[in-house]
Amino acid sequence: MKIKVGVIFGGKTVEHEVSIITALQAMNKMDREKYDIIPIYITKSGEWYAGSMLSDIEVYQDLGLIKKYATNVVLCKKDGAFVLQSKGLFKKVVTELDIAFPMTHGTNVEDGVLQGYLQTVGIPYVGPNVYAAVVGQDKAYMRDIFKANHLPIPEYVWFYDSEYRENDEEVLKKIEKIKYPVIVKPATTGSSVGIGISNNREELVKNIEEAMQYDSKIVVEEVIFPLTEVNVSVLGNYEHQELSAIEEVFSKHKFLTYEDKYIGSGKVKGKLGAKFAPVKGSKGMASADRKIPADLDEKVALEVKDLAVKAFKVLGSSGAARVDMLVNEKTNKVYVNEINSIPGCLAFYLWEPAGKHYTELLDDMINVAIKDYKKRESKTHSFDTNILQGFVAQGGIKGLKGTKGKLQ
């Protein structure tokens, strides 16, 4: 019997379209002999829709078609099964699910919010749990955890927008203890949205104002220069990890921008050539200019892989995360930049040079999720005893017998 996989994508996030690309690419590569694939699209307003038509990228050019032809659903547990149920007066079960596979990016869907909902429903799901998702999306919390575990990271500060508005001079002085140039980042967005380089105070103020449009928490850190940006993917959980090839990414800007990642030229040097296009008209993160494998000294490459595993384990990650690193070209010092707990395109392009094709990667991610679910279910989360029994008789609560039907 095939496993019914609900692939969840979209959501109220600035990375909405990137998520669609990731999901459509992945669904195109999943093993149809093993899995029944149920596309689940979350609109920008938070409505959930299901239907086979959601596998076609052309549908997303006219979102009115989705509301007209797909089914508006909710995920719930009913009679011991996990189901997608239609909304409205006459509710009916649209389909059952065995496992959920979030292919979502950014705020409200990658940051623990969706994972918390899935865990509350009780369904097994692929990728990071609630805790790993939260810290994997929050650049401030992430850096605090890396620092506490002695992982090498650039010098940084973070603050709330309210602190800046109340006393901008104090915040700016705190930042300027780090030498210019500095990079300003919204703490919880991805895909380089809202990020800017500041070479002086005027640019710093402008970039902070820009970043505060996207987030209430802002991170500012030193710029590593001269810089080589490298990424590596880690597959597994806290017990077991595999490593992909290392990539070196290139940008015409001072950092890898949204345009570099998703609207780039798609130049790829190395064994892969230009073999990226599961979705017609879009290559997602695979469109960035890159070299695979990265041109690194063997010692530096080993350090990159070692730090990637440490970062993955420290945050309690699961699935296939991408760990982004910064290498100072002069000193060869390696810094951990951040982890992407559900990376664009699920970082499949890093695994193919290592001998793991996309279909196998997706299969491995589902297997890790099943193992994680079994471990989670084996732990004690509640007790059979009810401490409220006899509580009324002891005088704790009185007069409830006549309240049935009166509580609203």
Q: Could you give the distance between the termini?
A: 45 Å
- In the CATH scheme, the class of the largest domain would be Alpha Beta
Shape: globular
How many individual β-strands? 17
**How does the major sheet shape up?**
7 strands, mixed
In which range does the helix fraction lie?
25-40%
Q: What is the level-2 CATH architecture name of the largest domain?
A: 2-Layer Sandwich
Unreliable segments of 5+ consecutive residues? 258-284
Number of domains: 3
CATH level-four homologous superfamily name of the largest domain: ATP-grasp fold, B domain
Structural class: alpha+beta
Mean pLDDT: 88
Order of helices and strands: EHEEHEEEEHHHEHHEEHEEEHEEHEEHH
Number of helices in the DSSP assignment: 12
Strand fraction: 25-35%
Give the strand order, joined by hyphens, for the main sheet.
Answer: 6-5-4-3-2-1-7
Folded structure, characterized:
With 408 residues, this protein is of the alpha+beta class. It has 12 helices and 17 strands. It has helices spanning 16-29, 63-69, 113-121, 130-137, 139-148, 161-166, 168-175, 201-211, 258-262, 298-314, 348-351, 358-378, and strands spanning 3-10, 35-42, 48-50, 71-78, 81-86, 93-97, 99-102, 156-160, 182-186, 196-198, 217-222, 227-236, 241-249, 268-270, 290-292, 319-328, 334-340. Strand 2 (35-42) and strand 3 form a beta hairpin. Helix 4 (130-137) crosses helix 5. The longest helix is centred in the C-terminal third of the chain and has 21 residues, at 358-378. The chain starts with a strand and ends in a 30-residue tail after the last helix. Residues 258-284 have low confidence and may be disordered.
